[in-house]
Amino acid sequence: MLMAVSANPKRGVMPVTAKLSLKFYEKLGEEVANELVEWFNQVDATYRADLRELSELNFARFDAKLEQRVAEVKAQLHEEISGLEARLDQRFGERFRSLETRTEVGFASLRADMVKWLFGMWITLLGAMVALTTLG
Asked: Per the structure, how many domains does the chain have?
């Protein structure tokens, strides 16, 4: 970069290479050397602006592609999760219905057994009460 050579080394600004700068000024003269340095600085500024613009355009394209790919991944993930939820609902739904049926059958059987025991105890108590009343 020749930006540091933008002033005459005789005026106190440190050039990139003192010999090169002195040779420029000695061979071409101060006015021509200053014009050359100014031209290099303009070219450098132009290239920097072009590079910055190109960089911004590339970043914008990258950002757009990234957003598109993230949206695609989100859609695929949502689809996979929905499929997984459906399979889980199906499997656990079947198992839950089976468990519910078995539980209902078990409780019905338990109720029938409890009713038998209840009548057995009532009859025993009734017999005991009748025996106590007749004996007593």
From this structure: 1
